[in-house]
Amino acid sequence: MIEVTERGSGSPGRDVAVVGGDVLTLTPQWRGGSVPATVLVRDGRIAAVGPDVPVPAGVPVVDATGRWVLPGLVDPHTHLGVHAEGEGWHGADVNEKGEPRGARLRTWDGVDPADRGFVDALATGVTTVAVLPGSANVVGGQTSALKTWGATVDAMLLRAPLGVKSALGENPKKNSSGGRGPGTRMGVAAALRDAFATARRFADDRDRAAAAGGRPGPVTGADRDAEVLARVLDGELLWHQHAHRADDIATAVRLADEFGYRLVLNHVTEGHRVLDLLRGRGLPAVVGPLLTSRSKPELRHRSLAVPGLLAGAGLQVALTTDHPVVPIQFLPVSAAFAVKEGMDPDEALRALTLNPAVILGLDDRVGSLAPGLDGDVVVWSGNPLDVMSRAVHVVLGGRSVYRWDGRGEVLGHDGAWSPV
Predict the structure, then answer these.
(1) DSSP state for residue 48 in the 8-state scheme
(2) Structure pTM?
(3) Which one in 76, 223, 334, 361 has a CA-CA gap of 20 to 30 Å to 122?
């Protein structure tokens, strides 16, 4: 059985009250605007949000007067910890090219918590990230959700596995695992059909053996891959599909229709070219990275207007940096440029918070400020969509972990503050 890990965020002593700020709750009921309010966190979870919340004696207070207060930002597609910036091959644990169909691979086995990108995330108000394998393989492996502060990956894990990453288009074609993987788009699609057919057969054989009281035979790597994909077919795990071009997006939808899994489209660069298809299925879209050049043919129609066009059509849109493709500190900047090109500002804020949480199935823990959710609260100097604004105080699970007072400081795992 595949391990499912979910960490609780609450523990004694993780109490804080953020007071005096203009609070944007970003809950599903939020309709824009802010209210002067207190956010009270007890034992790592939000206990209350409102203008008249009393602060119990002994609870540390963060004064947010004149500031904006939002939930921690969520980036739904990163390679934090598995693809370190500027470290060459030894920092690249993102693509296991020897496994063209590696569903059993787990991203959280490769995460380095010392990756500088986690500090950059905190300094940007990003408190939750999804960590995905790369797109060199048809099936890259299992995805995970992490908090951006912790000494070990086990302490950072929010939920794992979230789903399984798959790639369509140019990347799996050009990285064909030494000739053992497909080299055409029809070959990539056929490989996915074969993998899911094998998963169905594996699950049927396993269930028949169990009903008959039989004993399982030796477990191979192929069996473990099939077991994971069977959970995708059962709807337990998301299917994170890398697709840039319109024809690849259509193939992703076609495969999802055939096998019935929960599809989350990633990148969606040409989503505006198949808008009716996406709208008809009501599919969520993780859009980005936006701040890149048109560095390959799949990006020839890349446009900063795409998030607004998709959101305007009623689709649930989240924004991503695909870190380190675009450094994670540019996540709110990406939203600002999307607004400049037509995206509604309130929807852009949702695309950084609530929407990615909902898309990933994490909205019971993160993405908004509501009682019962994790105490991830960010105090901003101003509107996060203003490029001159910065995160000035970051609370993660009720613990202050980042602060700015003329320079950035991060809380060390020894409990001491140090300059960023």
Answers:
(1) E
(2) 0.95
(3) 361
Contacts (Cβ under 8 Å, ≥6 apart) of 168: 185, 188, 189, 241, 242, 243, 248, 251, 252
Mean pLDDT for 348-362 is 98
What SS3 class is residue 61? Answer: strand
- What CA–CA distance (Å, rounded) separates 261 from 332? 31
Let me know whether 321 and 202 are in one domain.
yes
Domain shared by 181 and 278, yes or no: yes
Give how far Cα 46 sits from Cα of 32, 43, 237, 374, 399, Å: 21, 8, 27, 6, 12
Tell me: do 352 and 406 sit in the same domain.
no
Residue 217's pLDDT is what? 61
Length of the chain: 420
Confidence of residue 1 (pLDDT cuts 50, 70, 90): very low
The two tokens of residue 186 are 């029809």
- Detail the DSSP E strand segments found in 223-320: 238-243, 263-267, 285-287, 317-319
Question: Does pLDDT of 50 surpass 80?
Answer: yes
In the predicted structure, residue 2 carries a pLDDT above the cut 80: no
How do residues 276-308 score in pLDDT, each as one tens digit?
999 999 999 999 999 999 988 899 999 999 999
Q: Which range of residues forms the domain containing residue 397?
A: 1-72+367-420
Query: Which long-range contacts link 91-97 to residues 24+ away (Cβ below 8 Å)?
Result: 91/115, 94/133, 94/134, 95/133, 95/134, 95/135, 95/136, 95/137, 95/140, 95/175, 96/133, 96/137, 96/140, 96/141, 97/136, 97/137, 97/175, 97/177, 97/178
The tens digit of pLDDT for each residue in 203-245 reads 888 888 878 877 666 577 788 999 999 999 999 999 999 999 9
Last residue of a domain, one of 346, 361, 376: 361
